[in-house]
Amino acid sequence: MKEVLKDLDKAFENRIRLGIMSALVVNDYIDYTSLKELLDVTDGNLASHLKSLEKCGYVSYEKAFVDRKPNTNYSATEKGKEAFIKHIKAIEQLLQ
Amino acid sequence: MKEVLKDLDKAFENRIRLGIMSALVVNDYIDYTSLKELLDVTDGNLASHLKSLEKCGYVSYEKAFVDRKPNTNYSATEKGKEAFIKHIKAIEQLLQ
After folding, report:
1. Is the predicted pLDDT of residue A18 greater than 90, yes or no?
2. I need a labelling partner for B63 at 20 to 30 A (CA). Which of A41, A74, A79, B18 fits?
3. What is B2-94's CATH topology?
4. What is the distance of C-alpha B39 from the center of its chain?
5. Are the beta carbons of B14 and A13 separated by less than 8 Å?
């Protein structure tokens, strides 16, 4: 069990970050506003969790304009997808 | 997704606490020393996570003596088992 626990990634312990990554692994990208609605979180909360995932190199973003309004698209990096899959597999193993 | 996120229990976000509960739902009880070895954590670390699970009413303990040495047996309460199953189901739903 200690080996499995080591595969659990601290970056995904928080439930908001778990939600962000779950959404980003099944979608190529999600814009900020949709992500906020999907997770039902405040701006400050979402921004801070996105920033911490960016710092880990798990999430990247691209600024875009929709009807002249700025919006930002977020996606999971390859590194982020791999780390998330490893984390989820560890949870599954833990429960077997 | 926001509904599912609400079912994630903050008490189980930490990976040590996730490990403790995983071990206690599949065993009637585990003594402190075995739990410590199983999870490969320090005394201080294990004690503080056990205390926080006790405070939630998720874990209970019973003092015992083995060969005149004190040992403590930990088990998951019914409330703890229910909360943990709800948490795990939420993680599974999040990934569907």
Report:
1. yes
2. B18
3. Arc Repressor Mutant, subunit A (1.10.10)
4. 11
5. yes
Q: What angle do CA B51, B53, B55 make, to 5 degrees?
A: 70
Are A5 and B19 within 8 A, CB to CB? yes
Q: What whole-number percentage of chain A has pLDDT above 70?
A: 100
* pLDDT for position A1: 80
Contact A17, A61 (CB under 8 A): no
Tell me what pLDDT residue A39 has: 93
pLDDT, position B92: 84
Are residues B18 and A91, on separate chains, in Cβ contact within 8 Å? yes
Q: Which residues of B touch A4 (CB under 8 A)?
A: 19
The confidence band for A69, taking pLDDT boundaries of 50, 70 and 90, is confident
Q: Does A94 touch chain B (CB under 8 A)?
A: yes
Q: State the smallest CA–CA distance between residue B54 and chain A in angstroms.
A: 20
Domain boundaries, chain B: 2-94
